[in-house]
Amino acid sequence: MKQLVSMEHLSNEEIYSLIETAIEYKQGKKVHKLNDTYVANLFFENSTRTKCSFEMAERRLGMQEIPFETSTSSVKKGESLYDTCKTLESIGVDALVIRHPQNDYYKELEGLNIPVINGGDGSGQHPTQSLLDIMTIYEEYKKFKGLNVLICGDIKNSRVARSNYQALTSLGANVKFAAPDEWVDDTLDAPYVKIDDVIEETDIVMLLRVQHERHDGELNFDPHEYHEKYGLTKERYNRMKPNAIVMHPAPVNRGVEIDTELVEAPKARIFKQMKNGMFLRMSVISHIIAEQQKGVLIDVAN
Ligand code: CP
Fold it and tell me: Boundaries of each Aspartate/ornithine carbamoyltransferase Asp/Orn-binding domain copy (predicted)?
C-alpha cells in the first residue's frame, strides 16, 4: 500500500491486514519505531479525533511531527495545496496526513513522491474512519458476511457513509440507509428503509452526524423532529437485538442523532471507535512507511 486516499483502492485482503496489525498494536504484541521518519498533518478543516489520534499514533511510532497550521502557513498568502505539499516533500517530510474540504483533493497531488493519507475530503472519503469502524465491528463479530448494517442520517454529505458503504459491502455485509429525502445520495445503490422497519433485525446501527457545515441555509431543520424520525431514541434502542451495537463517527450532536443517555449505553461503541482509531492509524502509517522505505521497520517486540 503506497498511500491511502480512498477505500475504493483497498482490497479486502489489505483491509484485513490493516485491522490485524491494529489489533496487534492494541494488544501490545507489535511495536514499531520509525525514529528517523518525518510527518506533517495538514488539516484544512476542523478535527479533534482524526488529528489528535494521528498525532498520538505518530508519536507512539516514534515519528517526528513537523508542526503545520493552515492559519499561519503560506496557504494564507495563496500558495496552492500542491505547492504546499511539494514544499514539505522538498524539505524532507516523508509522509503527509491531509484533511481538506474539497472532494478528491488528492488527485491534484499525483506529482508528489511521498505518500498521502487522507484524513477526509469533503463529502468524498474518510478511509481511516472507515477502517477503524471496520476494526470495531470485527472485534465484536469476527466476521462481516451477513451482518445487517443500518447507516442512518445525512448520507448525502457524509464521507463516512460513502467509505463504509463501499468497504462493508465488499466485505459481505448487508448495508441499508435511512435518511430524510433531502439527504438521500442517488450515487450509492444501497436500499433506503425506515429505521423502525429494520431496527429489530439490525446488527450495527451506525448514526451519522448532521453535517450542518455542508448544507446551504437549512432554516427548516428541527433537531427534535429529526431525533424522533431518524435518531436513536431510547424506545428504538430497547428494540435492538441484545448483541447489536451502536456506532457514530462523532462528534455527536447529543439529543439529535442519539439520545444523550445512550452515548455511553452498553450497546454503544462510540468511544471504543475513537480508541481503536489511534491503533488503526498506527497500522496505516506503518504499512505505508514499510512500503515506502522497505526494510526500515524494526519489530522490537520480537
Ligand atoms: N470522526 C471524525 O472524523 O472526527 P473529527 O472531525 O473530530 O476528526
Answer: 145-287
